[in-house]
Design brief:
By secondary structure, this protein is an alpha/beta fold. Helices cover 31% and strands 22% of the residues. It has 20 helices and 31 strands. The two termini are 17 Å apart. Bound molecules: 5'-O-[(S)-butoxy(hydroxy)phosphoryl]adenosine. The site of 5'-O-[(S)-butoxy(hydroxy)phosphoryl]adenosine has 23 residues, from α11, β20, β26 and β28.
Length: 670
């Protein structure tokens, strides 16, 4: 990795206004929209909501008893009805909804009418397996059309889905199944990733073997098939008679007629778990009417969706991006989209560009960590392919470095496509800070401005609101806060109202605290600067330091652990762990036993949480640097892990501790 191609300069003054031709055709191109929305937020959001199909109108736009807000009170609608049936009823049934590529190269397409049939049969199958309105269903599946069908089928019958990313371990899956009290788990025999099979059913069996009394059934989609000549060896898991059912046995036989359940606007649509700064993940709750309004509006304006577009969001539905910008937002807009199951390097490092070329993709929405990886692989891969169909590019998940932004614009976008850098969170449900591609002058590394109808500000550490119009051309730095409720905001943490209040609403009373640092420049553009709490952003995924520490100390050899995110050129942050071994397990970290122990601990964390949480580095230490009051000095650990000169060590109880860690770093790096 050459470090000179990627840096994080924050003095960035390049501005790229939309081209005249893009602006002329854009879904929104009147800059007055910001002021109009701010003048009457309720009317503005009500106008968006009225574009959805309601079964019963609302009587009150919103009611705020912070930290709780309700939107479109009294209204009834169904999210699946809006994403599927409505398009069929309005004459768009023959439009392609999904072009789905599997990693082995299989391509399947589904029209909206076909999606309706699949989702209806699945909805009836879920009911036949005992799922009723208000129940939770856990989905642990490959990224592909069946996962989208399963989400929509839950929405259709009024059950809440809880999608668990297929890269999570049995332990993480178990924790999420039991926390949500899921009645059913929908999974697959396996999923393709990097030419190998992720044995989803086997992992599901292991999760359920830990005890999950709420689960009465497991529905298994056959994605991979029996291990054979073309299918690498993998474990399909044992068949549990009475609990397990094959999808092709129960779903295909169902009737196509499955009415959409009328849901209250405030009925739960889904739970999605995200890392919290304590080890336990938070079950973020999203409801029906406000959420659908938020994702419908942002998808239409931010991605400038048109009937003729072929849209591709590369996120897996295991993350919120797949919920809001694969399923609900784009489908409520009736778009044609590409789904891709597997790795960007199979069969070669040009897979993404081949997909764009093959399906004439017009809009690409991906993550900075992927863009940095493509930069490192080199331009030859995209340059081999015809990317001229692209007209808009998006980025999400973490701050994008200006150099990666410029590369994305030049190499992928041919210098013609606007880039929308979208800031939001699992909790916000929809995009909050973003360019509007027909209006905004974009700047490499800035998410620009709050979406119309969204209100943001900066606070200082003392909880005072900062003046963003100070006239200082350098701008103002602080902590981001959202000052007005918005329709797609989370409605709570499943089973833990206390933690909801504490995490989001106690830092700045009356304002929502997202946990991100931010600078607003002299033009009013927002530059998101990363987390201010103990959440790491590893390849754009939220992992808490506590979660990894808890996994480490659960190992019999570990007495104490401290985890930090260190800067990483591709992942954004990589995990570094500092561990103290129990006296009975002490080893010299540089000996073969020490190296074996480190490898074992890395594998242990991956097995506990999932491969995304595997630490890049583990340092074995006799002690951890602590202040005299016993607080671990993470700043110093970061200095060590990033190979910097040690900062101020004068407040340490024992300065020798970091010195010995530093020696270990230097030996490791050679
Ligand atoms: C955190 C939320 C939003 C879906 C994917 C992540 C960081 C996200 C950006 C961006 C700078 C960003 C923030 C945020 N983040 N997008 N465009 N620029 N930072 O969802 O797992 O809930 O993580 O991701 O730190 O708080 P999530």
């Amino acid at each position: 990795m050459s470090h000179d191609t990627i840096d994080t300069l924050l003095t960035e003054d390049r501005v790229f206004p939309p081209s005249e031709s893009f602006a002329a055709q854009a879904n929104v191109n009147d800059p007055e929209i910001y002021a109009r929305a701010a003048a009457d937020r309720q009317a503005y959001w009500a106008n968006w909501a009225s574009q959805l199909r309601w079964m019963e109108p609302w009587h009150t736009v919103s009611d705020w008893q912070l930290p709780y807000a309700k939107w479109f009170i009294g209204g009834r609608l169904n999210a699946c009805d809006n994403c599927v049936d409505r398009h069929v009823d309005e004459g768009r049934g023959d439009k392609v909804a999904f072009i789905a590529e599997g990693e082995p190269g299989d391509v399947r397409t589904f029209t909206y009418a076909e999606v309706k049939t699949h989702v209806s049969r699945l909805g009836n199958a879920l009911k036949a397996m005992g799922v009723a309105k208000g129940d939770r269903v856990c989905l642990y599946m490959p990224m592909g059309p069946e996962l989208c069908f399963a989400m929509l089928a839950c929405a259709r019958i009024g059950a809440a889905h809880s999608v668990v990313f297929g890269g999570f371990s049995a332990e993480s899956l178990h924790e999420r199944i039991t926390d949500a009290g899921a009645k059913l788990v929908v999974t697959a025999d396996g999923s393709w990733r990097n030419g190998k099979v992720v044995p989803l059913k086997e992992i599901t069996d292991a999760a359920l073997a830990k005890g999950a009394p709420s689960v009465t059934g497991v529905l298994v989609y056959e994605r991979v098939g029996e291990p054979s000549g073309n299918v690498p060896d993998y474990n399909r898991g044992a068949w549990h008679e009475g609990r397990d059912q094959w999808w092709h046995d129960v779903v295909d036989a169902q009737s196509d007629d499955c009415p959409c359940e009328p849901m209250d606007a405030e009925d739960l649509l889904y739970i999605l778990y995200t890392s919290g700064s304590t080890g336990k993940p938070k079950g973020i709750m999203h409801t029906t009417g406000g959420y659908l309004t938020g994702v419908y509006a942002t998808a239409q304006w931010v991605f400038d969706l048109k009937d003729s577009d072929i849209y591709w969001c590369t996120a897996d539905c295991g993350w919120v991006t797949g919920h809001s910008y694969v399923v609900y937002g784009p489908m409520a807009n009736g778009v044609t989209q590409v789904l891709y199951e597997g790795s960007p390097a199979v069969p070669d490092k040009d897979r993404f560009w081949r997909i764009i070329e093959r399906h004439r993709v017009t809009i690409l929405y991906t993550a900075p960590t992927a863009i940095r990886m493509f930069m490192q692989w080199g331009e030859e891969y995209p340059n081999r392919c015809d990317l001229s169909s692209l007209r808009l590019l998006g980025s999400v998940g973490e701050p994008i470095n200006p150099e990666a932004w410029m590369w994305y614009r030049r190499v992928i976008g041919g210098e013609r496509c606007p880039i929308v850098d979208t800031w939001w969170q699992t909790e916000t449900g929809a995009i909050m800070i973003t360019p509007l591609p027909g209006i905004s002058g974009t700047k490499p590394g800035s998410a620009t401005r709050p979406f119309p109808g969204v209100a943001a500000t900066l606070m200082n550490e003392e909880g005072q609101e900062l003046n963003l119009d100070s006239g200082d051309p350098e701008g103002t730095g602080g902590i981001l806060a959202l000052t007005e409720p918005w329709p797609s905001m989370l409605r709570g943490i499943w089973g833990d109202p206390e933690r909801y209040q504490q995490t989001y609403w106690s830092r700045f009373p009356g304002k929502y605290f997202p946990g991100d640092g931010c600078k607003v420049d002299g033009d009013g553009s927002y530059w998101l600067l990363g987390r201010v709490d103990d959440i790491m952003l590893v390849s754009g995924h939220n992992i808490s330091t506590m979660e990894v520490e808890s996994a480490l100390v659960a190992h019999e050899a570990v007495a104490e652990a401290a985890v930090i995110g260190k800067q990483h050129a591709i992942k954004g942050q990589a995990i570094a762990a500092f561990v103290i071994l129990r006296a009975s397990h002490r080893v010299d970290p540089t000996s073969p036993e020490g190296e074996a122990r480190i490898a074992e601990l890395k594998a242990w964390v991956a097995a506990k949480i999932g491969a995304i949480a595997r630490p890049d580095d583990i340092y074995i230490s006799a002690d951890l640097p602590k202040t005299r009051s016993g607080k671990i000095m993470r700043r110093l650990l970061r200095d060590v892990a990033e190979g910097r000169a040690l900062g101020d060590t004068t407040t340490l109880a024992d300065p020798n501790v970091v010195a010995s860690l530093k020696t270990q770093y230097e030996e490791k790096e050679g």
